[in-house]
Amino acid sequence: MRKRLILLLVALLHRLTSQRLPPVPGLEVAPASQRTAAGLAGGGARPPRRMFLENHVGCLASMDLFVVPTTAFQLLCGLIILRHDRRRIVHNFVTAQPSASWVAQQIREAFPWNTGPRHLIRDRDGIYGATFRTTVAAMGIEEVVTAPRSPGRILTSNG
After folding, report:
1. Cα-based distances in Å from 28 to 7, 16, 21, 146
2. Is residue 70 scored above 60 in pLDDT?
3. Do 135 and 67 fall into the same domain?
4. Using an 8 Å Cβ cutoff, are 76 and 55 in contact?
5. What is the pLDDT of residue 77?
6. Which end of the chain is more exposed for a tag (fewer CB within 10 A), N or C?
7. Residue 42 falls within a domain, yes or no?
8. How many CA atoms lie within 13 A of 103 on its CB side?
9. pLDDT at 153
10. What are the angstrom distances between the C-alpha of 55 and each of 49, 97, 157?
11. In terms of pLDDT, which residue wins out, 156 or 151?
């Protein structure tokens, strides 16, 4: 009880002075415990993105839409869906006229019979309308939408 009280007092002094925690004579406290007592450990904070990806790689999939120009100068829209656990392509398709219902149908075809991932990473493309979001929610998949104007942030950031 006395050691805990001393530790809390030291942590309070640290917060007031914003300096490094001084050693307490006769009391050996691990640096992690000092940070926790000082409130620096970030209790309750969200884990960094990289840690999220490492912990949930088995239940992650990502999808993206892209434009492909043809030799006849037409534009085709391609869709690719990847599973992260084995780094494999689950589904890919190309169309000339994409719509929200078409993307929703591609999700149903990619993950039939309750084989969908827990999390689906996607960008903020306007094609993902209400039909798509309703279909994904009905399949029990949580959408993870990337931040605006940051194409590689979810994979390269540490926090």
Report:
1. 10, 22, 12, 44
2. yes
3. yes
4. no
5. 92
6. N
7. no
8. 24
9. 53
10. 10, 37, 15
11. 151
